[in-house]
Amino acid sequence: MALSFLLDPPLTADLRERIVRLWTDVTNAGGPIGFVAPVTVDDVRPMAEATFAGVEAGVDRLLVGMDGAEPVAVLFIVDNRFDLKAHWRVLKRVMVLPGSQGRGYGAALMREAEAVGRAMRLTGLQVTVRDGHGLDAFYAKLGYTETGRVPGALRVAPDDDRDELQMWLDLR
Ligand SMILES: CC(C)(COP(=O)(O)OP(=O)(O)OC[C@H]1O[C@@H](n2cnc3c(N)ncnc32)[C@H](O)[C@@H]1OP(=O)(O)O)[C@@H](O)C(=O)NCCC(=O)NCCS
């Protein structure tokens, strides 16, 4: 079933809770979206609420992929909060429900974000990627190229530092 997309849907209590649960489930399935598993919804909620606040302030944008009535794919289009970088955005917390992965939903979500970026007349979109999950291949298939790498930037465990990659889609 093809996803339908909602851009900046009202952040009702129900939608907030579903996104917090999705974020938690994706993390616990090993997804590198701001946390290291295992986490509970209570671990995720403060970061999620801070992220929702940026959307509610009209600064950032929320894109939700719906499978029928269920939100199964989410990303945030995040403003740089810096005038000299007002012409591009960072895509954050790109996630697809574990049971729905591998069906093309992630690629469809990213393509929709690209369409939103073009409609906003942005010059580019950036994603930051935790190395070691093969995600550079996912983004490369969507046209993103590696533009930077910070060695060992992410300490996911006391003896496990991962590079952080910046990947970029030029929209000019
Ligand atoms: C990464 C993620 C968003 C991809 O969504 P998805 O719906 O599973 O991916 P799709 O089915 O659309 O896959 C599109 C293509 O990317 C490839 N791909 C998907 N996930 C990949 C991964 N982790 N590593 C390498 N390639 C990947 C698929 O094989 C597919 O290739 P194909 O077009 O040649 O068949 C999803 O797996 C997810 O939520 N992962 C956990 C969270 C995460 O890693 N988010 C990114 C943080 S930077």
Automatic annotation (TrEMBL):
SUPFAM superfamilies: Acyl-CoA N-acyltransferases (Nat). Residues 6-172 form the N-acetyltransferase domain. It holds the Pfam family Acetyltransf_1. One of its GO terms (molecular function) is acyltransferase activity, transferring groups other than amino-acyl groups. InterPro entries: Acyl_CoA_acyltransferase, GNAT_dom. Keywords: Transferase. This is GNAT family N-acetyltransferase. It comes from Couchioplanes caeruleus subsp. caeruleus.
